[in-house]
Amino acid sequence: MPRRHPTEGSLLAEVERIFPRKVVQKNSPANRSLVNQLSLGIGDDAALFRPTRGCEAILTCDWFLEGTHFLRHKHPPDSVGWKCLARAVSDIAAMGGKPRCFLLSLALPESATGSWLRGFLEGLRRAARNFECVLAGGDTTKRNQIFINITVLGEVQSGRALRRDDASAGDLLYVSGHLGEAEQGLHLLRKHRGVAPRYSRLRKHLYPEPRLALGQWLVTKRLATAAMDLSDGLSSDLSRLCAASGVGARINAQKLPLVNPLPSPHRARQKTKSAENEALQLALHGGDDYELLFTVPRNKASRVPTSFGGVPLTAIGEITATRKILLVANGHKPATLKPAGWDPFR
Amino acid sequence: MPRRHPTEGSLLAEVERIFPRKVVQKNSPANRSLVNQLSLGIGDDAALFRPTRGCEAILTCDWFLEGTHFLRHKHPPDSVGWKCLARAVSDIAAMGGKPRCFLLSLALPESATGSWLRGFLEGLRRAARNFECVLAGGDTTKRNQIFINITVLGEVQSGRALRRDDASAGDLLYVSGHLGEAEQGLHLLRKHRGVAPRYSRLRKHLYPEPRLALGQWLVTKRLATAAMDLSDGLSSDLSRLCAASGVGARINAQKLPLVNPLPSPHRARQKTKSAENEALQLALHGGDDYELLFTVPRNKASRVPTSFGGVPLTAIGEITATRKILLVANGHKPATLKPAGWDPFR
């Protein structure tokens, strides 16, 4: 049907202003080799990418929807731009790969095509440079809410990717970072009126950092038998890793790298225990951390440092042959840990 | 946050029932080599794909949103499943490539998780088998409307992809099939109450066929200088091809492969002219045909057959050095053809 006043062109022009096809990307030294691999980017029917010899392609995609994954009146647009790419790139990190290029599918209301779009694209560009992942194409359309879908193409040496299904009984179970930090940030943000302030406690929720260097190091050193990223919360994600590998796990609650409870003027001394329990619940079920969960054979455990690139690595338990997932806490009987992390289909 | 009653698992189970990870796909001979290339499919953080030596990867994605691209009360669910993949695969056809695997991002209301989902997945599976493109992964979430995003990974011999930016003045301009057929189907569907009936006139709108064999043949024979698929309508898409190549075009209205007008009991003989004009407008601006638009140097034109695999190939005009796009009709002065096809940002 004939349509009047087309403005799709102007949306694409804005994307291309922030992500120029060749100029800026070629001028950025980190991206020069990537641009050479990307023989055709935005503007044709599809993108063309030259694979690196000896590598497999890693392919992943993620929704990022207004109302489900972010709130327009709470999350700054540059955080939406950063986080939508960071989440998808985290899946590449979890395979031990390097991100190469990405596709952006964007549905927008007209009210978001001005300063919101500019802020979004700035955050996305900052993430793209940070993760060395170039924009290769996408699709745009109009909707009354903001919908984003990101596809990332990455690479890893053939046969060396970190999968979920190779953990064995006896392997030690590790996590990077502190667990529940992003969920704690979300709780803070919910209490705050209006757009997120620049609290450092919100950083992990607004600008998560996929553990790319750690994933690649685990591949290079052949240390991990299985790995995945923690996106929905430890209790949910660990049960997926165990199901894929046909094993169980035993988690030591005392070993979990908890976040510090939020300071509360109303919290009396006798409530310390409830603050500790709150931190434990965040660590077990809090989503959006994008830390790595990985398993290491016991005889290689001495080669795992206590931190990597400033991020703590913590042994939180072990893989078991029985298919149960148990949580062990001092002075309590081991209890079954049920998946209770983020699930959009609650 | 802890969530009760998770049902995401049951949605994934339904997808895996229709698209079993290994069994069905390995049993289908056409897909056996693809499954070997897809070393890791649904169920991990990401999919792993082994590129064919000497090939480039083609990467494309497409929105398919309820209310924008389809209507739940009009379009049968298996048509939604077929068409969302066909549209994305059409971009691979337009590059002259072979589709290999795809990612499905699906957001669904609970009301659509029963028979709608089964019908959708059946149509999607039929398309996937037809196009020899295996499901490699994706993302699912819950929304109050149905949102789909499809990513397709294809392959083409390095340096041989059909791009949009290599058409030269003097090249002849070709289209496959009849133009406006899908839009005519949409008009019929709009007039019809309830879900689409099984009219053959609706086939092209509900179950479009990407021109994969034609695109691959054009690559093998090195006939086309530029190509793209017609998704938004000739007037809009031709202007994109011309802009990318820095050229113009002259279209001969008499040469356009029109659709037959719909029989109308109310249409008197004197209205024949308006029926013809309707068919012309459909051919110029109708969207969703997924035919190929391609350019061939004049000295190779004799090697283009009048049909390919039962689909007519028609020379509709030529590429010119001036950047204008002109429509020439018998007895009229050449007129500028403005882009007036489908644009979500009307």
Q: Key terms for this structure?
A:
homodimer, 346 residues, 14 strands, globular, disordered N terminus
How would you portray this structure in words?
Two copies of one chain form a homodimer. The first copy, chain A, has 346 residues and is an alpha+beta fold. Chain A has two domains: 10-157, PurM-like, N-terminal domain (60s Ribosomal Protein L30, Chain: A), CATH 3.30.1330; 172-262 and 271-336, Phosphoribosyl-aminoimidazole Synthetase, Chain A, domain 2. The first copy, chain A, is 32% helix and 25% strand. Chain A has ten helices and 14 strands. Chain A has helices spanning 8-18, 23-27, 29-37, 77-94, 115-130, 181-191, 203-206, 212-220, 234-245, 272-285; strands spanning 38-40, 47-49, 55-65, 98-108, 134-142, 147-157, 172-176, 226-230, 248-252, 291-296, 307-308, 311-320, 325-328, 335-336. In chain A, the strands form three sheets. In chain A, strands 7, 8, 9, 10, 11, 12, 13 and 14 form an eight-stranded mixed beta sheet that branches. A four-stranded mixed beta sheet of chain A has the order 3-6-4-5. In chain A, helix 4 (77-94) packs parallel to helix 5 (115-130) and helix 4 (77-94) runs parallel beside helix 8 (212-220). The relative contact order of chain A is 0.15. Mean pLDDT of chain A is 88; it is low at 1-7 and 22-27. Chains A and B meet through helix 1, strand 2, strand 3, helix 4 and strand 4 of A and helix 1, strand 2, strand 3, helix 4 and strand 4 of B.
